[in-house]
Recover the amino acids of this structure.
């Protein structure tokens, strides 16, 4: 897993008896409920209690797992570089 400010990368294995859309709906729904319950006292309101966007990206066939892992790590590194460069702009 790699968590970024505006997206999350997950590498998961879903048993064939579950559809990807059903699994993603379950994952997003349960995680949103847990977060709302845990942080409801923070005062931040989410209109209609929507946390996640409706979309997701899935690749199920033809990609090497090691390549995916490398991509997730590369993406994290790139996002940190961009964030660092943006912070440097404000410090100048």
């Amino acid at each position: 897993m790699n968590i970024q400010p505006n997206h999350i990368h997950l590498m998961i294995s879903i048993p064939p008896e579950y559809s990807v859309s059903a699994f993603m709906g379950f994952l997003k729904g349960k995680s949103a409920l847990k977060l709302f319950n845990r942080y409801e006292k923070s005062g931040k309101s989410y209109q209609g209690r929507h946390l996640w966007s409706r979309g997701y990206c899935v690749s199920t066939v033809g990609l090497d797992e090691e390549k995916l892992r490398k991509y997730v790590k590369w993406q994290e590194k790139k996002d940190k570089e961009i964030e660092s460069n943006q912070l440097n702009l404000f410090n100048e």
